[in-house]
């Protein structure tokens, strides 16, 4: 049993003849059992990263290791839900779950899958083509959870759901993950959607990893600084804005914050937005070795 | 990391002990996904087999009966009687339609394989669903080829056998229609070629689906690709076995069997194109024409020709299948 769910080294993927670059030089490590938010603007490479980890794409450079092996060899232990929640339209819900049973011999947990479907008030005899976007999400999640994965990769899982269903489904997902120690990676460009349920953050932008690590450690490594305009050296400045003579900046402190400046820990949203607004800010990757050593 | 493939194999072997093996699960899934195609194939088989069985039994009996009543059956069938016997017309229509239906199977297979079997699944993104179950893309492709192939081979073999039975039982009726053993659709349906071309259609369709990755363009691509291959191989057909030659001095030899070529012969035995002198002796003498030849395949060449062509068709199909797997391997992990 490995304690690393996903490890990427120099991972890159280019598409098509024009060598359009979706990911480049990605390196990060995600410990097993974590719930990771994969955040980034549209077109940042989130979907590509998840598809690489799911073994659906072959990297053009570097490697990605999943559950201690290649994505192809980890296939049985990984579940994946694509962004547009593809399902076979000609099948009924029951047929779709039967397919899950047939294609995951020895792994399939019919009770989990069926409960998720019936909790949504869905008729198992309904054809997939008659379902709404949110209902399809539910069936896709049922198919993914029924597999009893060790790693669950979800690409924008909650996008089609109304707030109530989102809350309920996210709760079910998190409870299931906590019960079985499943590692979950969820992509989104809505930070609020993930705040509170995720303990890890992976921020990608422009095909690169911008921030990676435990949420608490990342927040602790940054300071939101306000005060009169002045020199912020020797701190690493992620983003700074000056309104009149008033300075607001997100920095990575390299020592005590200078006198005359007020400093506080940023919220996750502030941290993410500051990095998204400043694509040139240096990347930061924190590993939770400290935490592992304690455990 | 070097034992990846070995790990995958052993994983497959251990789960095989589970109540449902991955192989059986995949077969069930392919059948479930393509249920309507399966029903279409069953219906098609029923209609085509029904038509052939009718032609073999009541159809030909009625035709012969009417022939005898009309007095056409004395000393061989006289072609002039054809139009006056409705039962014969029925026999002709049904058998001809059945031959053409059978002949359409490979092309239909190519179009279906390109669109519904592969193209639609890639276009809708449902490959991502199947490939992230405990099934590798290569196994998925193998199942998508093997399950339809088994059903198509079984079906076309039965239809070919039936077609051949009708053909051999009532050769005189067919002959009187001017339909010979080498006629395109009859030639294909009477031997192993129908099955071979159907497999080629499947392979070409699957490859087109993987290349084009969307249903409708793959349908067109598969149909065009298959039609091109069919025509190329068809144009080779007469060259697949040594021909027999007939010669005659006072005109062309009989036009029999699958004719490959003909022309004039000079006194040295050289083959020249016919100067079209007709009966003009001086003209013939001037061109040194002393006779005429005709290259052809007699009906005894049916099996050698069929088997040679079957081999070529299956080889091309194998190449298409190998290309499909290579393409899939390059794209997915």
From TrEMBL, chain A:
<dbReference type="InterPro" id="IPR017871">
    <property type="entry name" value="ABC_transporter-like_CS"/>
</dbReference>
<dbReference type="GO" id="GO:0016887">
    <property type="term" value="F:ATP hydrolysis activity"/>
</dbReference>
<feature type="domain" description="ABC transporter">
    <location>
        <begin position="6"/>
        <end position="231"/>
    </location>
</feature>
<dbReference type="InterPro" id="IPR003439">
    <property type="entry name" value="ABC_transporter-like_ATP-bd"/>
</dbReference>
<dbReference type="Pfam" id="PF00005">
    <property type="entry name" value="ABC_tran"/>
</dbReference>
<dbReference type="InterPro" id="IPR027417">
    <property type="entry name" value="P-loop_NTPase"/>
</dbReference>
<dbReference type="InterPro" id="IPR003593">
    <property type="entry name" value="AAA+_ATPase"/>
</dbReference>
<dbReference type="GO" id="GO:0005524">
    <property type="term" value="F:ATP binding"/>
</dbReference>
<keyword id="KW-0067">ATP-binding</keyword>
<protein>
    <submittedName>
        <fullName>ABC transporter ATP-binding protein</fullName>
    </submittedName>
</protein>
<keyword id="KW-0813">Transport</keyword>
<keyword id="KW-0547">Nucleotide-binding</keyword>
<dbReference type="InterPro" id="IPR051782">
    <property type="entry name" value="ABC_Transporter_VariousFunc"/>
</dbReference>
UniProtKB/TrEMBL annotation, chain B:
<protein>
    <recommendedName>
        <fullName>ABC transporter permease</fullName>
    </recommendedName>
</protein>
<feature type="transmembrane region" description="Helical">
    <location>
        <begin position="186"/>
        <end position="208"/>
    </location>
</feature>
<feature type="transmembrane region" description="Helical">
    <location>
        <begin position="215"/>
        <end position="233"/>
    </location>
</feature>
<keyword id="KW-1133">Transmembrane helix</keyword>
<keyword id="KW-0472">Membrane</keyword>
<feature type="transmembrane region" description="Helical">
    <location>
        <begin position="140"/>
        <end position="166"/>
    </location>
</feature>
<feature type="transmembrane region" description="Helical">
    <location>
        <begin position="307"/>
        <end position="328"/>
    </location>
</feature>
<keyword id="KW-0812">Transmembrane</keyword>
<feature type="transmembrane region" description="Helical">
    <location>
        <begin position="101"/>
        <end position="119"/>
    </location>
</feature>
<feature type="transmembrane region" description="Helical">
    <location>
        <begin position="38"/>
        <end position="57"/>
    </location>
</feature>
């Amino acid at each position: 049993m490995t304690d690393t769910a996903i490890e990427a080294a120099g991972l890159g993927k280019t598409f098509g003849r024009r060598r359009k670059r979706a990911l480049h030089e990605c390196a990060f490590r995600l410990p097993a059992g974590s719930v990771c938010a994969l955040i980034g603007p549209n077109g940042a490479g989130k979907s590509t990263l998840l598809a690489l980890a799911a073994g659906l794409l072959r990297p053009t450079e570097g490697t990605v290791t999943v559950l201690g092996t290649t994505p192809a060899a980890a296939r049985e232990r990984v579940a994946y839900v694509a962004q547009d929640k593809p399902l076979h339209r000609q099948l009924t819900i029951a047929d779709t779950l039967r397919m899950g049973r047939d294609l995951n011999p020895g792994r399939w947990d019919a009770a989990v899958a069926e409960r998720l479907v019936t909790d949504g008030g869905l008729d198992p005899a309904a054809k997939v083509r008659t379902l709404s976007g949110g209902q399809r999400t539910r069936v896709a999640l049922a198919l993914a959870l029924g597999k009893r994965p060790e790693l669950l990769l979800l690409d924008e899982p909650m996008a089609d759901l109304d707030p109530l269903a989102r809350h309920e489904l996210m709760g079910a997902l998190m409870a299931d993950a906590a019960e079985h120690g499943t590692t979950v990676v969820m992509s989104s460009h809505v930070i609020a959607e993930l705040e509170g349920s995720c303990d890890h953050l992976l921020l990608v932008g422009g095909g690169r990893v911008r921030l990676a690590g435990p949420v608490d450690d990342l927040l602790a490594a940054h300071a939101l600084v306000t005060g009169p305009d002045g020199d912020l050296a020797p701190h690493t400045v992620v983003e700074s804005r000056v309104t009149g003579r008033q300075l607001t900046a997100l920095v990575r402190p390299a020592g005590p914050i200078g006198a005359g400046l007020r400093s506080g820990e940023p919220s996750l949203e502030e941290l993410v937005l500051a990095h998204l607004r400043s694509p040139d800010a240096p990347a930061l990757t924190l590993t939770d070795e400290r935490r592992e050593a304690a455990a | 990391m070097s034992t990846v493939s070995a790990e995958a194999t052993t994983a497959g072997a251990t789960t095989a002990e589970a109540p449902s093996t991955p192989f059986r699960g995949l077969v069930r899934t392919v059948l479930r996904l393509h249920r309507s195609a399966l029903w279409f194939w069953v219906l098609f088989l029923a209609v085509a087999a029904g038509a052939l069985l009718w032609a073999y039994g009541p159809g030909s009996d009625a035709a012969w009966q009417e022939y005898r009543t009309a007095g056409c059956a004395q000393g061989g069938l006289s072609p002039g009687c054809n139009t006056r016997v409705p039962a014969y017309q029925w026999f002709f229509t049904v058998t001809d339609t059945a031959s053409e239906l059978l002949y359409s199977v490979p092309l239909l297979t190519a179009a279906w394989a390109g669109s519904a079997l592969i193209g639609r699944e890639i276009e809708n993104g449902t490959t991502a669903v199947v490939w992230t179950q405990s099934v590798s893309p290569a196994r998925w492709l193998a199942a998508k080829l093997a399950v339809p192939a088994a059903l198509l081979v079984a079906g076309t073999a039965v239809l070919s056998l039936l077609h051949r039975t009708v053909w051999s039982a009532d050769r005189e009726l067919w002959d009187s229609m001017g339909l010979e053993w080498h006629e395109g659709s009859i030639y294909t349906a009477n031997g192993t070629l129908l099955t071979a071309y159907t497999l080629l259609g499947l392979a070409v369709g699957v490859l087109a689906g993987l290349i084009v990755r969307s249903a409708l363009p793959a349908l067109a691509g598969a149909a065009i690709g298959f039609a091109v291959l069919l025509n190329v191989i068809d144009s080779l057909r007469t060259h697949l076995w040594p021909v027999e030659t007939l010669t005659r001095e006072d005109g062309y030899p009989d036009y029999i069997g699958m004719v490959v070529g003909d022309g004039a012969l000079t006194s040295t035995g050289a083959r020249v194109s016919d100067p079209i002198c007709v009966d003009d002796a001086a003209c013939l003498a001037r061109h040194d024409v002393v006779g005429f030849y005709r290259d052809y395949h007699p009906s005894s060449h049916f099996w050698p020709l069929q088997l040679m062509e079957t081999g070529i068709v299956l080889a091309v199909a194998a190449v298409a299948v190998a290309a499909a797997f290579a393409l899939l391997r390059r794209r997915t992990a």
